Amino acid sequence: MEEDNWTQTQQRSLPVNSRALLLVNRHARQGEKRLIEATYYLEKLGFKLTEESTENPKHLSDIIRRYQHKVDLVIVGGGDGTLNAAVDGLVETQLPLGILPLGTANDLARTLAIPNSLAEACQIIAYGELRRVDLGWVNGKHFFNVASMGLSVKITQKLTKEMKRRWGIFAYIATALQVIWESRPFSAEIKMKDQSFRVKTVQIAVGNGRYYGGGMAVVHDATIDDQRLDLYSLEIEHWWQIIPLLPAMRQGRHIRWRSVRALQGQKFEISTRKPRPINTDGEITTYTPATFQVIPKAITVLVPPI
């Protein structure tokens, strides 16, 4: 097991012996084998743990609701999809969230500067800062990172759990390259306030946090508490035009390119000729027509102290 590299003399945000509901996605890339390790660290740090798991992540919010008066916080171990499955329960109960990054991409953890080291992530849950963060909302579904349509949906549809477990982040890269090669533009209308834009695009992404898709940035300066949504539309005609954009997309600086439309706001409406699936934090959860909004300071998360 990793050595703790924080001293335990730091001031705790949560009381000693806090009661924690520990939810781990055993199907996450590192879920099953890291559960014993996480339990060891958290109990050593003084948490009184109640462990629950489910074969279906969609039940996580129901489990959180069931324990809302019996625990002081919820600790979720898994990737972005697992966190997304738990978000509605967190909003309703307003229990603080601790994150153990056990998935493939861990984009929310990256946005919040939570390291992949399990020992350090546990220390942040014990000694970190309680921070209110925004959530995105689309058609009744909350999301942490990004909601998108187009390329990202096709990547989600092709990317199997087995591929993610076996190849990790390289599975995203290989699948993305295949999807880009097969991409075809679609028509959409984007509305914000009193403006309307008709676009032909291969990808529309609406971001609440900064990172998505295994470390790509929606916008270089986005934060998860800036009370805004960042939208980009990738308006290219041929698949090969995306290749020179890829390095800029890693840093969130693609918004400066002529073929990329970038908008900021608190609410967007997007419609398409026929319903198109929308991916929220890596899971397909709704379809167009869609209304996107930011929900400011929606939940509390334990993050590294500033």
Which structural class do the helices and strands define?
Answer: alpha+beta
The number of domains: 2
Q: Going across the major beta sheet, what is the strand order?
A: 6-5-18-15-8-9
The major sheet is characterized as: 6 strands, antiparallel
Provide the succession of SSEs: EHEHEHEHHEEEHHHEEEEEEHEEEEE
**Spatial separation of the terminal alpha carbons:** 27 Å
Uncertain runs are: 2-9
Compute the average pLDDT: 85
CATH topology of the largest domain, by name, is Tumour Suppressor Smad4
Q: Radius of gyration from the CA trace?
A: 19 Å
- Say how many strands there are: 18
Walk me through what this model shows:
With 306 residues, this protein is of the alpha+beta class. The chain has helices at residues 31-44, 60-66, 80-93, 107-111, 118-127, 151-158, 161-167, 169-182, 246-251, and strands spanning 19-24, 48-52, 73-78, 97-101, 129-138, 141-143, 146-150, 186-192, 195-201, 203-207, 211-212, 216-217, 229-234, 260-265, 267-272, 277-280, 283-287, 290-303. The strands form 4 sheets. The chain has a 6-stranded antiparallel beta sheet with strand order 6-5-18-15-8-9. Helix 1 packs across helix 5 and helix 2 runs parallel beside helix 3. Residues 2-9 have low confidence and may be disordered.
